[in-house]
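Researcher: Please translate sequence to structure tokens.
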Amino acid sequence: MSTRDVLKESFIRNFTAEGVSTADIFLVLGVTLAISLYIFFVYRIITRNGFYNKSFNISLAAVAMITAAIIITIQSSIVVSLGMVGALSIVRFRTAVKDPMDLMFMFWAIAIGIICGAGLYSVAILVSFIITIVIFVLDQFPVVNAPAILVVRAAQNDIEKNITDIISDYTKHYKVKSRNMSVDGLNMVIELRVKDGGALLSGIYELEGVDYASLLDHDGDVTF
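Model: Translation complete:
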């Protein structure tokens, strides 16, 4: 046997485990399942006032379990781990995560799968506990008034100053996003922050020549 064969055999012998016991596998998957269910319920509570995606929430628990299984497999053999890294490197995910909070929960589930797969259960529990506290504490912080979009249609083209004067009486924070003039009149779209939207609309409707006014809330990006 050549020196190269001896080194190769020694490498494989040193980095190939005897195997993971069935009890260890059930323990890892059981703890991972328990923590992933905890993440499932935390996500449901956090999104109680917003858009709740049940499929995404279920996928969080599944991702944690799958990640833990991958870590167990990697620990069993260095040869298998190298092959798995090569296989996973060609996988590309094209689904966009629109909400940054969803992305955080996805990383949380993956991290729990990795930590539990490595057998560090106390770390996984402590990390989950701290993350939960941070999420709920920051969620209770007060936020500024939600931005709104005011849409006004008037039959007169020279009424813009009157409209902005009334808006200034109710808020200092506004920005004209769009104005369209035609022979039929003026159309305006204004982004603003206002506490008493009903009074603002009433004031605009009192202007002569205003045909339509609508105030819409939105949660997109703002420019002020």
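Researcher: Any highlights?
Model: DSSP finds eight helices and four strands in the chain.
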